[in-house]
Amino acid sequence: MTVREYLNSVFIRSPGEIPALTGFRGVAIFMLYYVHLFRNYEAQIIEKNFFLSTFLHNGSASIDMFFVLSGFLIAGPLLKELRKSGTINLKAFYIKRSLRIFPPYYIFLALQFFLIIPFFARGGGEFGEMLMSTRWRIVFDLTYISNYYPGTLFHGWSLSLEEQFYMIFPLFLMLVFHRIPERFQLPSLWVLVLLPMAYRLYILPAIAAQPHPSGPYQAWIYFPFHGHIDSVIIGIITAYIYQFRRHWVDYVYDRPALKSALLGASVILFFAYSIFVFEYLPTIEGMVVRFPVFSILSALIMILSIPEGGWVNRVLSWKWFIPAAKLSYCAYIIHIVVMIPLSRKIFGGGELHYYHIFLWFIPIGLVIFFFAYLFHLVAERPFMIWKDRYTDMLKARRAAA
């Protein structure tokens, strides 16, 4: 591999990559930018508007989009392998996941512990003392349990939840799912979707009784594995249908009018829910069914946009989503430490309007991508090359067997 190929890899579509899914990931990361930018400056916005605030807050649906995509992309190959061979190569799966996930995450945690936190603590005062006194909580980040015990990476809860999914899911497939008769496999996955919903419904009265429901909602529902895993399971269900009930999918693909109608309705409902349903209100639509609603709509948009043709496919297949998608993991990890100081330079402490968020989240996002690109070259790309070589070695072994 030449230096030029190494540097340009994020701008080139990988073999077998589905263009629409690349765009789907790119849209999700920009949604993440505007929700975190808004939440940092919501208090400075004058002339509050419920619908605009609700829409910007619901940028957090980007996390459910990522969860659906992870469930789809991880479950698909595993389900296919299990159906074909009756087992899963756990060693290969965990090695590939480790090379993909661990290096950027742990490298950033080291930078945060030794450089970033001390740098932001230099100003002293109560904030600086708090940063240094809570630095020990990095142990929860290191062990991927920060969705239950807050660590130093405040948005690391989702990475913890996904890592718990990676650890548990292959074992679940081999030890439990494989033993379920085929006709009951899909219904069993839907039962797993209902379990977190039942938990959220059970805990809702306790959250509603709190003077400030948003905090308990995040701690008891939003962050924990058992409160939010249904978004990932919906991605798994989507993979199962795409793999083993493909005639259902092809039935829609073969009828362009039906596909367009379903896709258009899914997009409209996604935006409608984003505008009218406020996440932090202790209601059934806000705290109980919100995750599956966004996840099912995301799954429909994702699957229905895969075939070429149609405006959604053309938008999501736009070539500039390629680097956005390839850098999304590194961008997710580092975005807060870039966004906060940069946005403070832009916004300061003065009064803001909603248009400031809409105007600046893309330029700020592009700056985040620049730093994510540099971080990717050092902390992610070398290990991705090792992962690809390991995958090629496994393919060669299977071909020779």
UniProtKB/TrEMBL annotation:
GO MF entries: acyltransferase activity, transferring groups other than amino-acyl groups
InterPro entries: Acyl_transf_3_dom, O2_lipid_transport_reg
Transmembrane domains' residue ranges: 20-39, 59-79, 99-121, 157-177, 189-208, 220-242, 262-281, 287-306, 318-342, 354-379
Acyltransferase domain mapped to chain residues: 19-375
UniProt keywords, alphabetically: Acyltransferase, Membrane, Transferase, Transmembrane, Transmembrane helix
Superkingdom field: Bacteria
PANTHER family assigned: O-ACYLTRANSFERASE, O-ACYLTRANSFERASE LIKE PROTEIN
Protein name (database record): Acyltransferase 3
Lineage, opening ranks: Bacteria, Pseudomonadati, Spirochaetota, Spirochaetia, Leptospirales
